[in-house]
Structures are given as C-alpha cells and as structure tokens.
Amino acid sequence: MSCKVCSVTRGRPRSEESRRAVLSAALGLCERDGYQAVTLKDIAAAAGVGRQTLYRWWGEKAEILLEALGELAAEGLAAPEPSGDPAADLEEFLVRTFGSAGTYVGAVVVGVMVDGQGRPELGERVRRELIQPRRGELRPLLDRVLPPEVDRELAVDLVFGAMWYRLLNRHAPVDGAFAREVAAAVLRMAG
Amino acid sequence: MSCKVCSVTRGRPRSEESRRAVLSAALGLCERDGYQAVTLKDIAAAAGVGRQTLYRWWGEKAEILLEALGELAAEGLAAPEPSGDPAADLEEFLVRTFGSAGTYVGAVVVGVMVDGQGRPELGERVRRELIQPRRGELRPLLDRVLPPEVDRELAVDLVFGAMWYRLLNRHAPVDGAFAREVAAAVLRMAG
DNA sequence: CTTTATCGAGGCACTGTGTCTCGTTAATAG
DNA sequence: CTATTAACGAGACACAGTGCCTCGATAAAG
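Output (structure tokens, whole complex):
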C-alpha cells in the first residue's frame, strides 16, 4: 500500500472495500435517481463511508463515476474478434455500443461529460478515458469498409456524433435499430 | 400590458427595458465567464435589476439564455434563398450554422442543453425552441441532394450530431472547414 | 385618487460543497 | 511488543447559490 501523496508503504492502507462500495453506490444512485440528482452526501451515505474519504480519493462526483465507468468498460471488454465480414463486424460493434449507451450507463456518461464542460481539467480526463478509447475501437473497423479517400476522423465524428446527439436531445432512442441504420449509412458513404 | 398570470391589463406594466438588460447582461456574462460560471445573482447585478424580477419572469438561468438565444436567432435569420445549386445551398447553410456554433454562442447552447438534462420540462423547451427549428431548416436542403431511399431523419442526426459531438468533446474545431467536410460526406452518401 | 402589479433592494432558510478536526484502526518499522 | 504513520467514519464549520418572502416606490388603468 502507498501513502496518498508520497507513495511510501507505511500507515493504514487504503480500503479496497470502501472504494468498491463507493463506485457501486454511485452507479446505483445514478441508475435510480439520475446523475444530476446524486450528491456526494448521498454517495457517502449509501456507501457507508465518510465524506472526507470521497474528497481524499476523488474530489468530485464526476471523477467517481468516471472511475466506475472505467471498471464497467474493463469488465465488458468483449474482445471483438474480426470475422470474415467487415461490414458485419462494424454493425455488431455499433449495436453493442449503442445498446449500452441506451441504458442508464449512457445517461451517466452524458452526466460526466456535462460536468466536464465547465472544468477543463475534468474535460480532458473525460476525453482521454471515455471518448478516445471508443474512437480507437471504431477506427480499425471503419478502415476495413471505407475507401482510402474517405477521412477516418470525419467518419468517426459522424457515427458517434449521431449517437451523442440522440443521447442529449432524446428525440429518438439509441438502440440496436439505430445502430444498424448508422452502419448502413457508413457503408453507403463507402460507395 | 398584462398581469403575469391573469392577463388583465391593469397595474404597472412589465419593463421592456429591464427585459432587454437582463438578456443582454446574461449573454455578455456567458461570453466573458462561460455559461457554467454565471449565476442569477451575477445577471441581476450586471443588468441592474432585482433578483426577484428574474424569478418572476424566468425562474432559472437556462430560461433566460434560451430566450436570449431565440432573439439572436430571430435577428440573424438571414433568409436562405435557394440558388440553382442545391449542393452549394447545403454547404452554405452548414458553413453559417457551424460558424455560429463555433463562437461563444455555441457554448451557451451547449450550456442550456446541459441544464436541460436533469429537468425534463426544460429539456422539452430546448428541444422545441432550439433543436427542432434547426432540423426543420436542414431537412428541405437535404431533400434536394439526397435520393428518396436515404432516410432524412438519419441524415439530420449525422450532420448535427457531428457538430454537437465536437461542441461537447472539443477534439477538433467547429468551423467552416468542418462544415464543408460534412457537406461533402452527405453528398457522397447521396451517391 | 384608488387600485393594481411591477420595480429594485435586501433578508432568510435551505442545500450542496469543500475544508477541518476529532478519536479509531490497520498497516509498517524498530 | 511498541511507536509511527496514514487512512478510516463521523461530524462541525464557513461559504456560495437558490428560491421565497417582504418592503417602500413607481407606473399604468379605472
């Protein structure tokens, strides 16, 4: 174990049990009450943890949920083995991604992103830990269906942009059917 | 003039001067400090207005900015006369829209949308007064470049989605160059 | 001139945040 | 075993922003 700042192995070690309790309580409260309604007090109370422990290790709600989302992603990492059909691989990836985003998890992601709007440092973490990894997963799938003259970054913006737009604006569901429509549009763009 | 609730024309009329001062002060503070940092106290002080006046007519920050954005949109309505070239019309519309979104106005729009996330009623207003009108403007432009088998709503989601994704995530600028790329992608999708 | 509803100004309770201090507890160092 | 160290749960505190209330003043209609 290590001290919070000096990484010397002395003193009482950080409680892994408390950490798990906090992440689990935070996700549970977000699912039940919605991200915006959850406070640090709520999380501390639900996790059976002192408030100071939250400020010591995270500091704010968005950082807690960012870590919780990271663990969720690590659990369901579902290695996408390439089949013989690049178009089917793309579609399957989008169906899985959009399907997950359509649950409360997507609402939490939106909440974290939203909190990052007014705080550049947090925004940078969100970008690095939440957004860029997904872009990195999508790019190779697009490489296998798009001709070289189509810009990859633009295609990624169009695909994930459509997803985010619906997550924010809620004019239509984010689900597998939408994922298939978007996949078809990409293939149409491929010509 | 009319009473706030009963619309009987009696009593002191609402001050149009105060209303303009509030909207102007709100936009100015957002431009200077960023949407999230602005408070109702700040707006009241900058507008030289009592706080109760804000609660009487608007109730919260997002509603003030929503009205201010509405007036901005009404001023710069720039009737888009159709030229002979549908592709050029689409591109011009996107260049103007993305260009505006790239300024602090886009950040205000994001802030209002963000506040609407945790408040269904406000979210509905944002959708109706801010999002749907833009979709309505884009649709006929797409009609003139897309073949009938391409779904319009999906195309709108892809175009504005890409814009919103960049506004939120800030991994790349929202500007005229991006607008032209998106327009080209739509034309490519048209085949 | 009376009635009415707005005006700017300010007070107050409430909530969530962030910092601080307790006494306690679980590790390592000697 | 004992001392040291740092995290633990719990709670107090100041601070900021919100939302509601009241006040005397003001500008319109009847």
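The interface with chain A takes residues 34-37, 110-111, 113-114, 117-118, 123, 127, 131-132, 150-151, 153-155, 157-158, 160-166, 168-172, 181-182, 185, 188-189, 191 of chain B (CB under 8 Å).
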